[in-house]
């Protein structure tokens, strides 16, 4: 019953004295622990967020290049009478599909040899649409190169379609 007696005495105490009796002494060593933990965790989280945004932009640009190359190859199949018109239609479709901020930066294989011999079918021609985008290289890079964060210098999107002669 000594515990019950202490509780009754505590209830009869003055509120200030009771609050002082309940308080525990503060530890001296834990005063700046929250600031130190914050200083350690925040830079790690910021680098993680930067990496997510950086690689997200790279993946989005790669997807845009691949989609534009596929649309260009598909446009070459839309009833063009000659191969030169098919190539022109393919690259016109590429320019219409690409986002405007990428259009001037993308390099194509239109001036070289987009018409190639198909690998698996002898005697057939294929149209190869290849788009190259310098990401972290060149005079005006699209994204800055960040140390310790590996990123590709260029991105490439490509598509190949078999052309049927005379149609």
Could you give a short description of this structure?
It is built from 5 helices and 4 strands. By secondary structure, it is an alpha+beta fold. The protein has one domain.
Task: Explain the overall architecture.
There is one protein chain. This protein is elongated. It is α+β, with helices and mostly antiparallel strands and 167 residues long. Strands 1, 2, 3 and 4 form a four-stranded antiparallel sheet that branches. Helix 3 runs antiparallel to helix 4. It has one domain.
Tell me, rounded to a whole number, the average pLDDT.
82
* Largest beta-sheet characterization: 4 strands, antiparallel
Low-confidence stretches: none
- C-alpha Rg (nearest Å): 34 Å
Oligomer: single chain
Whole-number total of structural domains: 1
Structural class: alpha+beta
Terminal Cα span? 104 Å
Task: Supply database-style keywords.
alpha+beta; 4-stranded antiparallel sheet; 15% strand
Which SSEs are present, and which pair or pack?
Blueprint: H1 2-12, H2 15-22, H3 33-75, H4 83-97, H5 100-103, E1 107-108, E2 115-117, E3 125-134, E4 154-163
Helix pairs in contact: 3-4
């Amino acid at each position: 019953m000594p515990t019950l007696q202490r509780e009754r005495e505590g209830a009869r105490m003055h509120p200030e004295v009771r609050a002082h009796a309940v308080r525990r002494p503060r530890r001296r060593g834990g005063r700046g622990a929250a600031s130190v933990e914050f200083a350690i965790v925040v830079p790690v989280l910021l680098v993680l967020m930067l990496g997510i945004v950086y690689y997200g932009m790279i993946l989005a640009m790669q997807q845009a290049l691949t989609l534009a190359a596929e649309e260009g190859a598909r446009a070459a199949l839309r009833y063009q009478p000659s191969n030169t018109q098919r190539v022109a239609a393919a690259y016109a479709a590429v320019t219409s599909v690409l986002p405007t901020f990428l259009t001037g930066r993308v390099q194509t294989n239109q001036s070289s040899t987009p018409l190639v011999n198909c690998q698996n079918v002898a005697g057939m021609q294929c149209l190869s649409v290849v788009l190259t985008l310098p990401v972290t290289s060149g005079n005006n890079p699209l994204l800055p190169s960040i140390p310790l964060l590996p990123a590709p210098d260029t991105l490439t999107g490509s598509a190949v379609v078999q052309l049927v002669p005379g149609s």
